[in-house]
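Quick illustration for those who missed Monday's session on complexes.
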Amino acid sequence: MNNKLHCVSKPKKYYSITMSFATRLMSMVLSLQIIAAFLFITAAASSPPSGFTMDLIHRRTNSSSSRHSNPDDLRSSPRADVFFDTSEYLMKLQIGTPPVEIEAVLDTGSEVIWTQCVPCLNCYYQRNIIFDPSKSSTYKERICNTSDHTCDYTLLYGDQSYSEGIFATETITLQSTSGHSYVMPKTLIGCSHNSSGFGATTASGIVGLSLGSLSLISQMGKDMLGAFSYCFSPERTSKISFGSNAIVSGEGTVSTPMFMKKEKPGFYYLNLDAVSVGETRVETLGTPFHAVDGNIVIDSGTTLTYLPASYCSLVRESVEKVVTSAERVTFPDLDTLCYKTNTMDIFPVITMHFSVGADLVLDKNNTYKAMDNGEAICLMILCSPMTPVAEEAVFGNRAQNNFLVSYDRSSLQVSFKPTDCGVTEDKPRDSTSAASFLQFNIKFVLFLVVLSLIRL
Ligand SMILES: *[C@@H]1O[C@H](CO)[C@@H](O)[C@H](O)[C@H]1NC(C)=O
Ligand SMILES: *[C@@H]1O[C@H](CO)[C@@H](O)[C@H](O)[C@H]1NC(C)=O
Ligand SMILES: *[C@@H]1O[C@H](CO)[C@@H](O)[C@H](O)[C@H]1NC(C)=O
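Prediction with 2-acetamido-2-deoxy-beta-D-glucopyranose bound:
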């Protein structure tokens, strides 16, 4: 299998984000479409597009044959523990030899798997010990053939958090249903030496699960069918499963087509036809948001749900029409509908209507949140542009709570099954209560820059 990474002549000032960024990005994206084959948006170099030199082909070792030494493992599925941490769902995995546990944001909105590494130029606080590559016998820096030194990367996310580091190959180990470990030797990961903007999260890094070739699911190889499923519990530990175990079916399951966009490769798009607010169905038809080939990204790494302003205001108005018995209140830095009340009973149930009859009736906890020590309740579907992601509609992780969500690249479907995700033997973590934080992350990748050619 070939991966293509795009190369940039060293940009001088690639980290400069302003609101004009979106427009700049847009024009660059157009000129980049031709070379944007597998990676996410790679733009944002201040150098003109002519600075983009060439694609490179990087050959991976035949991973599918090396993954399974034990025949039992062919019938087993890798899986990992998942738990909530203030605004994100983190998954546990092990890296290195001997294996070291990390907890990383489970992110379907980005591609690269990375963890903080020592030495730190600029590290944020994480709960686990920071990974030390010098203590791992399987860690190998990737060498780039333009410069004969390490392959640097810079990643920027929608909430302006970023990670800078170098690419390396390393062993990743997951649990497996067979009882044996699922071992992924020579997995391409980012070793981050400079990252920031991770706020209240205690994660060690991010696990990208997008359609891009560097994501965890892509690097697992074809035998996992590009399939995975997770179940997000707001309070307890749950699981993410890969491969045959990830297929979701049975009573209550609804499925909707998965779309891919050439101009935004890697993202999982769904098509949202309408949102019902109580009994009122608010159609996208007749608004600029309407589409038939995907208009909303499903992103486990983004906390809230965002709709584009024109359509979102219709949804908001419908909520306002129902909630008449409470006084409006506002909060700084949170542009949404809030009311002075302590009960969710007065709010309408919100249903998302995805294409081909996939109706998701959302629990009120998925769409509203108590604020101000329970004195107020706010709608957690946001209209306002917070970042250059502005015009993207995003279906975030809070709205997905208590659904078993499966992504199946072979059938191009995303399925949802209402499930009490917290029904496990596992004790709740010593988690700092989510309610005390107002932290909404957007781990929707804006760009990935790889500074030089990768050689294998
Ligand atoms: C990779 O492994 C598979 C399964 O063992 C084999 O069929 C295939 O020929 C191998 N490909 C290469 C390039 O070695
Ligand atoms: C870390 O990365 C940011 C963004 O690219 C950059 O502005 C900053 O200078 C870097 N810090 C260090 C210590 O390298
Ligand atoms: C919603 O959240 C509240 C407060 O955390 C909890 O008491 C209630 O049981 C939740 N409702 C459902 C249906 O999960």
